[in-house]
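User: Show me a protein chain along with its predicted structure.
Assistant: Here is one chain, sequence first, then structure tokens.
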Amino acid sequence: MVNLAAKVAGLKLRNPTMLASGILDETGGSLLRVFNGGAGAVVTKSISLQPRAGYSNPTVVQLENGLINAMGLPNPGIEEYCGEVRKAVKGGAVVIGSVFGKDEEEYAEVARKFETYGVKAVELNLSCPHAKGLGLEIAQSAEAIERFTRAVKKTVKVPVMPKLSPNVADIASLGKATERGGADAIVAVNTVKAIAISPEMRTPILSSKHGGLSGPPIKPIGLRCVYDLYETVDIPVIGVGGVTTGRDAIEYFMAGASAVQMGTAVWMRGLDVFRLVCDEIQKFMNKEGYESVSEIVGLAHE
């Protein structure tokens, strides 16, 4: 009998799939709907201390097999978001709070409030590719990553999981920085910086010009990042980027991921994608004779 239960940084999950931050995570009802739809855990939208409006439309470009988005991190602020988190938690969902801010003090304060709302872990969005002053400036600095991670770790008791960017020269060294800061796990990776242009309008389509590419096109990049991190750090890695099928998830596990997150896959395959991917993982494991996901984590390194 295949066992899909997973344990990541103290988090006990019924299966190794999670909803990635940025899709169907604005309300407690949508988070609960995704969890009841089969996800092992759900990550909230990225929340800041104060409300943030985000960018004007257009904010999303649909590609043949992916998305480019530049939402600008819109959110109601952590105080207003309280009711949404508590609704999902009360409904039984395993909720992970996604945090961002202008400095480490804001990260720590938002994480503290998330903890009081009942989240099981906090994910630090250190890697948004399109929000000036709130993403890549942190993601490219090992010193900043270590400092921000340590500030949050000193503030909360729940697991802390920094989310790293693929838009860097050496993600492995940045993974070590999270480890020095006391991180319990690493989430890899955020979207890839990208642009789309309208030939008719002769201009970039997104109002912010640059956005973040997600979906199948970035899977090889995500896999490479997870592979490199697994060889460098001693804490669990959660793989993100282009996971759409059970086979994609298996590749991430073998690269070294202990769990995977999906976002664009919900747009591509619908809300049933978590159950579908889990079924596909089970079929592969049954065929190959594996009994638990932990057996295949890191196999590509042997």
